[in-house]
Amino acid sequence: MADSDQIAIATAEGCWLTTTTGQRLFDGVASLWCNVHGHRHPKMNAAIREQLDRVAHITTLGMSADITDLLAERLVAITPGDLSHVFFSSDGSSGVEAALKMALQYWHQRAAATGATSPSPKTRYLALSSAYHGDTTGAVSLGGIKYFHQLFAPIVFTPVRGPLPCSYRLPEGVRPETACDHYADEIETLLKQHHGELAAVVMEPLVQGAAGLITHPAGLLARVRELCDRYEVLMIVDEVATGFGRTGRMFACDHEGVTPDILCLGKGITGGYLPMAATVARPHVYEAFLGDSSERKQLYHGHTFGGNPLAAAAAIASLDLFAETQLVASIDRKAEVLRSSLDRIANHPHVGDMRGRGLMVGIELVEDRDSKTPFPSERLLGRKVCERATELGAWVRPLGDVVVMIPPLVANDEELQFLGSTVSRAIEEVLAELG
């Protein structure tokens, strides 16, 4: 906070924020990747107000709310394959924590069902390099980004660490057309060695967000699904960032026809209005927990505000808007509009890569375009570009020297062109100062 210039928001409408000083800013990061339908959408507001007149909160431990039950049914109807049982929590990190505990307990109870006299050895997880799954302890344990992970090493567990399936910086000798096979082979090697102790593979699908919008080779997600089946390891997919239309499908898994054993959802689930997350499991996972109360098979895990009725009402209103507006079907075209607005910097000598899926776009700044050599981190060029873009009217945030644009899904063509041209100008001006 020592060098932070505080921006305080007084009001917001649509895709625009207004600060307490009167500056109008385009919300280029969708209020941390979660705003879907814009701010102050009348249908979203009305749904929350209506629910507020019914009940604002009850516990889902020992009872439920009708609105939350309805949301569970709606989620089951749109999630991939036979995902059919929903556990609610309050944020993406908590949703991942629930998934980790489900997976470990699943194998413990599978072993007990076979009459095993010792606990299941499947108590570890495989996570990708540069992974990010949240900031709570279990989620941090999975993480592979040093600023989120390194300091806390004394209090976290150690996963089996997989590769970073980057499509930009490929390993020596690997070509774009062989990248999927290369990374899948690396993951298979680890599964061959560790499958007996692995409860689950945990991964972000298609795009690793906090790593810098690292984009995976097409087909890798489906290959990992096949490998998990072959080596009898659960597959946990973290769609907290990629879910609810962000990549051009309702869920990133839909691009490759993948149904994970456990799916983690958050961020856009309520359209960005209220905190909520969901961990959705397939029947075989759920059934491992079924039994009489005396058998103690239940998941001993719960959240005070899990399934909160106000959040559930917002989520249902958001799903209704998806259906009414066919919003997901528009994302690929909108993504082209945003990317075309960046054409002026496509060949800039310090723009190394422009990547992402759907309305997730990252621009990586590099010192040398040909060698892909990064700038020294202490120069904070990504931060300086974002500060300049904010001065010009577009609020964006960096991930190191990757300038990230993740606007609300409802942004229109003019707004997307404004975002792209503003960020392009900011990049040109800041990099011009380098000489």
UniProtKB/TrEMBL annotation:
InterPro entries given in the database record = Aminotrans_3, Aminotrans_3_PPA_site, BioA, PyrdxlP-dep_Trfase, PyrdxlP-dep_Trfase_major, PyrdxlP-dep_Trfase_small
Instruction: Could you list this entry's UniProt keywords, alphabetically sorted.
Output: Aminotransferase, Biotin biosynthesis, Cytoplasm, Pyridoxal phosphate, S-adenosyl-L-methionine, Transferase
- Which Gene Ontology terms describe the biological processes this protein takes part in? biotin biosynthetic process
Q: What PROSITE patterns does UniProt report for this protein, alphabetically?
A: AA_TRANSFER_CLASS_3
Q: How does it assemble?
A: Homodimer.
Read off the HAMAP family from this record: BioA
Name of the protein this chain belongs to? Adenosylmethionine-8-amino-7-oxononanoate aminotransferase
What organism does this protein naturally occur in? Novipirellula galeiformis
